[in-house]
Amino acid sequence: TVIHGIDLKAELSAEQVQFVRDTLLERKVIFFRDQHLAEDEQVAFGREFGGLDAFPFGKSGANPYILEIRHGKNRPGTENGWHTDVTWMERPSLGSIAQCVEVPPVGGDTLFSDSHAACLGLPPALRERIGNLHGVNDYRVFLMSRGPGLPDDVIEAVKRDIPFGVSHPLVRTHPETGKPALYIHGGFLRHDSLFDAKTGVPLDKAESIDIVGQLLSQHGQPEYVCRFRWSEGSIAFWDNRAVQHYAASDYYPNNRLLRRVTVSGDKPYYD
Ligand code: SIN
Questions:
Q1: Is 71 annotated as catalytic?
Q2: Would you state the pLDDT for residue 36?
């Protein structure tokens, strides 16, 4: 859904903030065009929806709450897999607000997939099987891919402050709408780590890997997906508890730059 007739540079009224929040909850991802927010304005807009998370693996810039997602000739796109953000955190983000600062001449769209629909569309036996299952998520893949470019003190602080493994349910109850959603990040989830959250009993590793494999293809079904074509100054605000996203990496060697602000979330649960 594209929301028109609202200037995000201006101070928003309580009614406008409530309208944006309600529309986000209903539609799961919302878009704005021609906003061209300065970094501080984008941060201020994010703060209307809660606290913000600074991304520990980003390069430190002027504003710690702005994450630059920059790709080009020497840095091909890497976010071209279906994912929900930061599942390695105990309290993964509520949502993200990304603004396009540099758009490639062709391509670079972001696709969003409805995790509630993806959950409802699972084969009934699989849906039943995963109801009580949790898996362990781990950010070390980031340390391998981004670690070499980060200062030592950042790496040490990350290792000290963030646990290596946090468990989350595979089906997550949305804390505001109550809707169940398929909740999985195939890069961070250890595929052999599923266990029954009621008994604590781990699954046989082969079964765990098999279940994760079946779930990972689910969000890609076109029936659940919308696709957003960026222009400079466009904003996408997605509910990280309710959708997954995929950044199409089809614009190499052109440049593409997004700036993202991340709104703090809470601990996922299933009831
Ligand atoms: C991301 O937040 O994963 C990146 C989104 C994008 O680059 O479109």
A1: no
A2: 97
| Ligand 1 pocket check for 27: Cβ under 6 Å | no
Q: Whole-prediction pTM value?
A: 0.94
Mark whether 227 is an active-site residue.
Answer: no
Residue of 154, 147, 145 whose CA lies nearest to 54? 154
**Residue 12 Cα to ligand 1 middle (Å):** 26
Asked if residues 157 and 56 have their Cβ atoms less than 8 Å apart, the reply is yes
Q: For the chain, percent helix, then strand, then coil, each to nearest 5?
A: 25, 25, 45
Q: Which residue in 21, 27, 71, 85 is the catalytic one?
A: 85
- Phi, psi values for residue 219, rounded to 5°: -65, -20
What pLDDT, in 10s, does the model give residues 61-99? Answer: 678 899 999 999 998 888 899 999 989 899 999 999 999
Give backbone dihedrals phi and psi of 246, rounded to 5 degrees, phi first. -150, 120
C-alpha closest to that of 225 among 123, 82, 26: 82
Does 243 contact ligand 1 (Cβ within 6 A)? no
Q: Which of 185, 241, 245, 256 is catalytic?
A: 245
pLDDT in tens, 73-83: 998 888 899 99
The 10s digit of each residue's pLDDT in 103-149 is: 999 999 999 999 999 999 999 999 999 999 999 998 877 777 665 56
**102 touches ligand 1 (CB under 6 Å):** no
